[in-house]
């Protein structure tokens, strides 16, 4: 199958880490990939995950952190949401110079995390390394050094006019951090994403219906198995590149059926052609049997989504007036879903 570049961005460069994220960002569980040599198992079977996809070296450590987080907040009567956010990276070479990326800035996941925290949830934020992060996302367009003045003798002052609402945002960020309500976990590659999501599902199984999965990450449907991947950088002197990719196993199936059968699970469906969106969303719901699909079109995702469930279809729209007041559609999505989650818990117990 020849690679179609329509839904991917071929990313040849490593993105720069923004200074502001390193200053404000909290401690993060970082995934380091250890490549195994793997071959020929059935990718459709979720049991074969470790055979086809390299296991991140510290998955067990992250699993324990997530399990302790879920237990602690579950015991305190809190609901816990696992948010996935950002795009997955699919390497083309083992010693990776080039990779395929799925489009996602991480804005939806990062802003949703803030609204879930406001609704009283504890949040596990499984996000792509260097994608947008709760609270710091509000300052991504700002060069931090332009906001600071060196006053001498180790004293630095901040120009608050250049960091809108910084006092309020910082206060909220520190409240969330000191209450231990946000657990950030990072992924970069598709393999890391798949293994960490499986570990999260197992870690959250102890709190049953109090767990929500909010799967906003943009996940590749295609990958190159490590056994078929060249070790070294592909040489352009060999002529034009043709890549054959395999289908990624549908992780939602075992997640809903085996790993977290009592949880409230929400997936996102992204299309560029609006005419097939709802049919694709319904198809996902029928296939995976989870609770809801949030359907969106790439160009209009900031102002319009449809929450599709087995027996309902709810359009969420930002009016011009709301957009002007900088209301975010994620506030409406989170309100809708947290309400549905409470009903779900009341029914299931
Ligand atoms: C989404 O559809 C998200 O809403 C976006 C958010 C990625 C569009 P941003 O991060 O964008 O705010 O820039 N996520 C799911 C995308 C996805 O990969 N879905 C798969 C599919 O549509 C699996 S259900 O087939």
Automatic annotation (TrEMBL):
Catalysed reactions listed for this entry: (R)-4'-phosphopantothenate + L-cysteine + CTP = N-[(R)-4-phosphopantothenoyl]-L-cysteine + CMP + diphosphate + H(+); (R)-4'-phosphopantothenate + L-cysteine + ATP = N-[(R)-4-phosphopantothenoyl]-L-cysteine + AMP + diphosphate + H(+)
GO MF term set: phosphopantothenate--cysteine ligase activity
Residue span, DNA/pantothenate metabolism flavoprotein C-terminal domain: 80-129, 203-332
Signal peptide (from-to): none
One BP term from GO: coenzyme A biosynthetic process
InterPro entries associated with the record: CoaB-like_sf (IPR035929), DNA/pantothenate-metab_flavo_C (IPR007085)
EC primary class: ligase
Domain of life, source organism: Eukaryota
A matching Pfam family: DFP
Record-listed E.C. numbers: 6.3.2.51
Segments forming a coiled coil: none
Role summary: Catalyzes the second step in the biosynthesis of coenzyme A from vitamin B5, where cysteine is conjugated to 4'-phosphopantothenate to form 4-phosphopantothenoylcysteine. Has a preference for ATP over CTP as a cosubstrate.
Recorded family membership: Belongs to the PPC synthetase family.
Protein name (database record): Phosphopantothenate--cysteine ligase
């Amino acid at each position: 199958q020849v690679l179609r570049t329509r839904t991917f961005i071929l990313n040849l460069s490593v993105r720069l880490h923004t200074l502001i994220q390193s200053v404000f960002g909290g401690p993060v569980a970082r995934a380091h990939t250890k490549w195994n040599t793997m071959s020929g198992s059935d990718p459709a079977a979720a049991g074969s995950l470790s055979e086809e996809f390299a296991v991140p070296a510290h998955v067990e450590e992250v699993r324990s952190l997530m399990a302790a987080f879920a237990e602690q907040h579950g015991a305190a009567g809190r609901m816990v949401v696992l948010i996935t956010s950002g795009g997955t990276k699919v390497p083309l070479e083992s010693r990776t110079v080039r990779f395929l990326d799925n489009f996602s800035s991480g804005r939806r996941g990062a802003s949703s995390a803030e609204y879930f925290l406001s609704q009283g949830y504890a949040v596990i934020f499984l996000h792509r390394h260097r994608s947008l992060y709760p609270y710091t996302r509000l300052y991504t367009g700002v060069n931090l050094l332009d906001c600071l003045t060196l006053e001498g003798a180790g004293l630095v002052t901040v120009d608050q006019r250049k960091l809108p609402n910084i006092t309020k945002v910082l206060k909220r960020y520190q409240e969330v951090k000191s209450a231990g309500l946000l657990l950030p976990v990072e992924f970069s590659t598709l393999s890391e994403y798949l293994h960490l999501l499986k570990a999260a599902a197992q870690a959250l199984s102890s709190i049953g219906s109090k767990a929500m999965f909010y799967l906003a990450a943009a996940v590749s449907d295609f990958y190159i198995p490590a056994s078929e991947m060249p070790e070294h950088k592909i040489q352009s002197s060999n002529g034009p590149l043709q890549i054959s990719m395999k289908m990624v196993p549908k992780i939602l199936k075992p997640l809903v059926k085996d790993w977290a059968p009592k949880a409230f699970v929400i997936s996102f469906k992204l299309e560029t052609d609006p005419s097939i969106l709802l049919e694709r969303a319904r198809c996902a719901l029928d296939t995976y049997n989870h609770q809801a699909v949030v359907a969106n079109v790439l160009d209009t995702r900031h102002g319009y989504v449809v929450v599709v469930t087995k027996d309902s279809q709810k359009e969420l729209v930002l009016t011009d007036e709301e957009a002007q007041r900088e209301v975010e559609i994620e506030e409406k999505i989170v309100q809708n879903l947290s309400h549905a989650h409470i009903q779900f818990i009341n029914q299931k117990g």
